[in-house]
TrEMBL record, chains A, B:
Transmembrane segments: none annotated. It is a single-pass membrane protein. This is Mitochondrial cardiolipin hydrolase. PROSITE patterns: PLD. It catalyses: a cardiolipin + H2O = a 1,2-diacyl-sn-glycero-3-phospho-(1'-sn-glycerol) + a 1,2-diacyl-sn-glycero-3-phosphate + H(+). Belongs to the phospholipase D family. MitoPLD/Zucchini subfamily. It comes from Pipra filicauda. It holds the Pfam family PLDc_2. The keyword Membrane applies. GO terms for molecular function: identical protein binding; metal ion binding; phospholipase activity; phosphoric diester hydrolase activity; RNA endonuclease activity producing 5'-phosphomonoesters, hydrolytic mechanism.
Amino acid sequence: MWSPAGLPRAALLAVAAAAAALAVAAVAAWRRPRPLREVLFFPSRPCCLEALLAEAAAPGAPALPCPCPLPRAETSLSRLVRRLLSARRSLDLCIFAFSCPQLARAVQLLHRRGVRVRLVTDAQYMGLHGSQIGRLRHAGIQVRHDQHSGFMHHKFAIVDRRMLITGSLNWTTQAIQSNRENVLVVDDAACVKPFLDEFERIWEEYNPTNYVFPKVSN
Amino acid sequence: MWSPAGLPRAALLAVAAAAAALAVAAVAAWRRPRPLREVLFFPSRPCCLEALLAEAAAPGAPALPCPCPLPRAETSLSRLVRRLLSARRSLDLCIFAFSCPQLARAVQLLHRRGVRVRLVTDAQYMGLHGSQIGRLRHAGIQVRHDQHSGFMHHKFAIVDRRMLITGSLNWTTQAIQSNRENVLVVDDAACVKPFLDEFERIWEEYNPTNYVFPKVSN
């Protein structure tokens, strides 16, 4: 009858070495950061974001107490803002409707901090009452828009080219406070890469050198 | 000097057994189906879906040639329809605006095939010109809607409680053919479960027994 005890010592040593290699690989896989999967639902309870924005603007500085009556709770909006504020190098935005002042402040803050912010939006919605696009442009942020009859209806953000924030949520106070909405935050490359490619495609297509202006007659 | 060759045979055998167990686990992990990550972008080229719908309605039956001039190409719309038609047991839909006749046909087809279809939509958009909600209700599909001033703005589908289809795309021909839109198809539980829970929450909240009707004076 066959018995492993009868195997030559060299074979057992080889198997032991393979086991060690597999164990190292298993530990490495176990220690790998877990993939990011966060789902946020709206409407979000109103909350005060002052402490969050102040900490991001001047890390470690003593926060001034905010006199507003809103709670400093953790909400879907505060989680979304926290994800955006985690940007260190770049923030690529494709936002159909952008009128939420708090999100505009977060984006401006990143721009001031040296993060490369690029923003694509919809030509028809960027001029509506309450739009934050003018304010962001005034702050020096690069903005491009379509010139089509169809809408640039995406609502996604890519943080540092590795985290995708996407869903049904337009960046408006109405959507955040009143609508049923979802936002998904993921970091796996199979999701992020196609959105990055789509962003770069749109960014080039909406280059102002491609804009067409109506001819003015003398 | 220490030498592995000096280890007792029993220790080497134990290590070899551990190696075998790790190898079995590694093979199992390798054979596990890869997670589903599909990203669809719109606008989608117009295409003929007749063959796809006919095959889903009567698998294996000879397809009648369609006289329409549209190509039978693989497009973002055909891929979306294919994912929906893969449903075998259930289809849970949360769709803000639903006016695309082709997507309505796919949903009706699943209903006829015995798939349990539940549809949540927005009260203000369900009555708009071209809406498919009446047709779907007429076909016997359960539909529930909000009664709020805010929008039920989700646009997601869950197939067989294990595949999530979500994004910016409303199910309208305008959005499919003219807008810049995205749809993400994923199957990992960390994404699907929260959406399933959200669907069940909304389904219960929008139960018609909770609807409030204006009082009629005599």
